[in-house]
Amino acid sequence: MARKPATIAIHSGLNQDTQFGCVVPPIYLSSTYNFTEYNQPRVHDYSRRGNPGRDMVQNALAELEGGAGAVVTSSGMSAIHLLCTTFLNPGDWIVAPHDCYGGSYRLFDSQSKRGAYNVIFVDQSDETALKAALAKAPKLVLIETPSNPLLRIVDIQHIAELAHQSGALVAVDNTFLSPVLQQPLSLGADFVIHSCTKYLNGHSDVVAGTVIAKDPQQAEELAWWANNIGVTGGAFDSYLLLRGIRTLAPRILLQQKNAQEIVNYLINQPLVKKLYYPALADHTGHEIAKRQQKGFGAMLSFELAGDETIIRRFLAALELFTLAESLGGVETLISHTATMTHAGMTPAARAKAGITDELLRISVGIEDSQDLIADLENAFRIVTQG
């Protein structure tokens, strides 16, 4: 019987200890494991290659996304780097979104300049531009939907079909929604990527990433390269990640509810020039989001009317919105995109992606929504009063 994500999240790794009967698995901190005899290693021989705790969380992630196998890495960026290292060679092309996460943009741009592979950044909602990029016969197409930070939505199934026709593999960064709200492998993707630092862990105390493969052979290739280049996640991080996953479903559903209430407030706020959230009927990707997602998530962005002085005063007036990078934790965060998460992009690249200097991104937490709205109301009042 196929289990739902909330059940998978709770039961992964439980009751597997045969020595003491621990319900919750212990932390396996040993770096090395003895051989039973000459040339007879156990299942694990060295923790860079394999760790019992990391095995458990990898199995959980693979099951949550409906994949054949997963590799947990030291960060979300190392997960993307692992995918590219495994499947791209010099001269190969990767097609990436023009508005992708700033760290991803920086990685692809810097690696292409070194000759590791070639990259083309394209607006994947533009059919003509996308087909022109696919005409280069790329080896890999990366999809990020909803995008960071403008929450743009693209059709995973449609792009995957086009990409496969051109001979490309397809990877989807599913960090913003998690497998509770979107499952890209079921829509035609070959790989799913997460920064596990975000919703999967959910408590802003772990840095980790994962690549999940649909094909068992490709999952084995990823595991081999992860060990080879040494990007696998540590034992304690794996333990904390598995613990965080257990509350993934209730956390993200409450965060989504709070986000919708904040959006309803911001719609009527005069200092909000433009609001980005896929649940809005006038959002360009609204219908696609309804079709391929199980919810609209807890990330939103808006452009604040005013100059840098106004933005500084607004951010300084907030008490419950922490000015910080990252997202997906139980606490609400706000970031200024141009100087924080996307500072690695040139001003020209940000402008092409539609990222203005007035853009603010919010990762909504699990606080009481009315307290969050009151905090926003106070900040807007301070800015308005001058």
From TrEMBL:
The gene is metB. This is Cystathionine gamma-synthase. Its EC number is 2.5.1.48. Keywords: Transferase.
